[in-house]
Structures are given as C-alpha cells and as structure tokens.
Design a protein that fits this description.
There is one protein chain. This protein has 410 residues and is mainly alpha-helical. The protein has a single domain, classed as MFS general substrate transporter like domains (Growth Hormone, Chain: A). It is 78% helix and 1% strand. It is built from 15 helices and 2 strands. It has a two-stranded antiparallel sheet. Helix 3 packs parallel to helix 5 and helix 9 packs across helix 14.
C-alpha cells in the first residue's frame, strides 16, 4: 500500500471505530439505566436498545446509492450529523420514549456502506482486500473495547454521559473525514464493495446468500437480546452493579478471542469452514441456554459467556468470508449490502422481541428466545454446501462496465 492508501484506510477505519464505540458502549449498561426512566417497561427497553438497527438497516443501501450521486464525504458528514443529533436527544431525554426517538435518529446515520465505498475509491484493486481487512479488524476491536469501557464510563459519567461522548465522537468522525481523508479523483461504483440496484433481486433469490443473510440476522438478534438479560444474570451471580461489570467482561472477552482465533484458522486454512460454522452455531445455542438456567452459579455464567463470545466472534469473522465465496463476482457488493442491512434489522428484531420475552419471563425468557433463534438458524445452516474457493474473480476496479463488468465510473 502507498502512504496515501495507508492514510486513507487508517482514517476511514478510525471513522468506523468512533461511531461503533458510541453504539456498543451502551450495550452492557443500557438495561439497568433504562429501568429507571419514566414510561419504561421491558418491551420499551428492548425496543429502545434495538431501535437504531431499524433505520440503519433500511437506509444502508440508499445512503450508498446517494453517495454515488452527490459525494462520499457529503453523505458521511450528513450521516454522522444524524448520529450526533440522535445521541444528544438520547442524552437529554427524560423518558424512555425520548431515548427511543434518539436511538432511531442515531440509526439514520447509516454511513457504513459509504465509508467502505470511499475506501474502495482511494485504494487500488490489488490492495483493496487488505484495506477492507484493516477496517474489519477495527470493527472487531471497537466492539471488544466498547463492551469493556462502557461499564467503566458508566461509573464516571452515567449513560447520558456516554450518549454525550458518542455525539462528540461523531463530530470527531466528521473532522477526520473532512480534514484527513483524501478526496477521490472521481466516483466509481465498485461492484465488489457497493450495492447495484439492478442486482438486488438476483441476490435475494440466491439460496446460499439468503441462508447467510438469515445467519447474520440471527446472530445480531441473539446478541442484542442477550444484553437485555446478561446484566441481571451477572448481578445475580456476582452481586456486581453495572459499573463494575468490566472486571468480568475483560477476562471473558480475552478468553473468547483466544478460543476464536484457532477456530477461524481451522476453518480458513484447513478447509473446515462448514464444520466450524455449524459447531459455532451449536455452541451459541448451548451457551445462551446455559445462561438462562445458570441462576447464581458464577462458574456456569462465566463459562457460558466465554463460549458465547467465542462463537459470536467466530461467526463475525466467517460470515463475510462466506458471503464473498458464494456471491457471483459481479454482485459481491450487492450481496454485502443486503447482508449488512439484514445485520442491522436483526439488531432491531433482537431488541424488540427480546424486550417482549423479558416482560414475559424475565432474563430466562430472553435466553429461551435466543436459544430458539439459534436452533432455527442451525436448522437452516446444516444444509449449506461445503464452501470451496470464491465463485470467481472480483471484477476490476477502474475499467468501464462494458470492458470488465466490474466498476462503473460516474
């Protein structure tokens, strides 16, 4: 990679990171905070936690398409302003309804697809996969850091303070985008990283891609629902408040990564992708079921959480790789766009339905719901064919559509 490519990729990865830190920091502390808000009920708490996923999922592809017309940086700035505005509204809200509105507005800043498109604009075809991998690693690190740092910040500034910090991080993302990220010489539709409207119907009827879309939807529904139950389960097992849970999350996440790395290596380098994939779903189902019936058993809770995050992180690494392998060469970007939208819609469904389950039967009801989702996913995944290599070579980056069938210059 050239210095300019490294700079562009690093800066755009930072934009991704500051946004995701703000989103994920509230996960481990939101349920306990929201219980004290006027109008709060388990169903409303779950809805507020997952609400940003609805607007995020619906607007991912439209934001990307608009960026082709009016510019990447403009759309990133608009999206981050929405995100900052929603964060301010959530920080100042005096009721669960106010937080819900703020979360919906946060999700309207659906800039993920635009950031990836700008990465593609600013890198050559031969280094683009490496650049995307750098962004992917940043996303994973942001999640791990946010889950640990969220409870620490909660002890100092509370959840409203975290929302205010999220707004500041969004403004920092705008400053990075406008001040440090180079501007592309021209806008190009990169079919390996952007959605093409004419190809969406083709992607939606592809059985294997649909199976993977169900997978990412289920995975993030389970994750979001679980955070409605885990804080209460940790309090029962360890007697800790939300502000001290980082002392549990930190070793749990470190242990889960230690388990995840060899699993991914086994899948990618030993040709055991399907076997590891199916095993990870089964482990996910078993871990959330164990959480639901752990009671005050501290050891059971810790083991279940380690296995849960190991399976989750393994899936986060494997699912995009599988989409890339199964997608037709000229529709990879479209396949990833639909996949990303399903991820965020899963977040919304997990929060909304998980909140109903919480009102029905408390944390155990949430874990039963998550277990059923995992088992349904397992039922669809066992029929997946054993993946080989990618179906074909990614189309070129700069030649016209007629010549290469790849990118389309604007």
């Amino acid at each position: 990679m050239t210095p300019n490519e490294r700079r562009a990729t690093g800066c755009l990865a930072a934009v991704f990171a500051v946004r995701l830190l703000g989103l994920f920091m509230i996960y481990p502390v939101f349920e306990a905070y929201a219980r004290g808000l006027p109008g709060a009920s388990p169903a409303m708490i779950g809805l507020a936690l997952g609400a940003y996923g609805l607007t995020q999922g619906l607007l991912q592809i439209p934001f990307g398409l608009l960026s082709d017309r009016i510019g990447r940086k403009i759309m990133i700035t608009i999206g981050l302003l929405f995100f900052a505005g929603g964060s301010v509204i959530a920080a100042r809200a005096g009721s669960i309804e106010g937080v819900l509105f703020g979360r919906i507005l946060q999700g309207a800043g659906a800039v993920g697809s635009v950031v990836l498109a700008l990465v593609a604009d600013l890198t050559r075809q031969e280094v683009r996969t490496r650049a995307m991998a750098m962004v992917g690693v940043t996303i994973g690190l942001a999640f791990v850091v946010a889950i640990v740092v969220g409870p620490i910040l909660n002890a100092v500034i509370g959840v409203p303070g975290i929302f205010w910090l999220t707004a500041v991080l969004a403004l920092a993302g705008i400053a990075i985008t406008l001040g440090l990220v180079p501007s592309p010489e021209r806008l190009v539709v990169h079919r390996e990283s952007e959605a093409v409207p004419a190809l969406i119907s083709r992607v939606l009827v592809d059985r294997e891609l649909l199976r993977l879309d169900v997978g990412i939807f289920s995975l993030h529904a389970i994750l979001t629902a679980s955070f409605l139950a885990v804080p209460t389960l940790l309090a029962a097992a360890f007697g800790t408040g939300a502000s001290r849970e980082w002392m549990i999350y930190l070793p749990v996440l470190v242990a889960s990564v230690a388990l995840m790395v060899p699993a991914v290596i086994l899948a990618e380098r030993r040709g055991m992708m399907k076997e590891v994939f199916i095993t990870a779903i089964a482990v996910l189902a078993a871990s959330v079921f164990a959480l639901g019936f752990a009671g005050d058993g501290a050891v059971t809770v810790i083991v279940a959480l380690v296995l849960f995050f190991a399976a989750f992180n393994s899936m986060e690494a494997m699912l995009p790789s599988l989409v890339s392998r199964f997608a037709p060469p000229d529709a990879k970007g479209t396949a990833m766009g639909v996949y990303s939208s399903m991820q965020f819609l899963g977040i919304f469904a997990g929060g909304a339905i998980g909140g109903v389950a919480l009102s029905w039967s408390g944390p155990r009801g949430v874990c039963i719901f998550a277990t059923l989702v995992a088992l349904a996913w397992l039922g669809t995944a066992v029929a997946m064919p054993k993946p080989a290599g990618a179906r074909g070579r990614t189309a070129g980056a700069s030649k016209p559509r007629e010549a290469r069938g790849g990118d389309i210059a604007r």
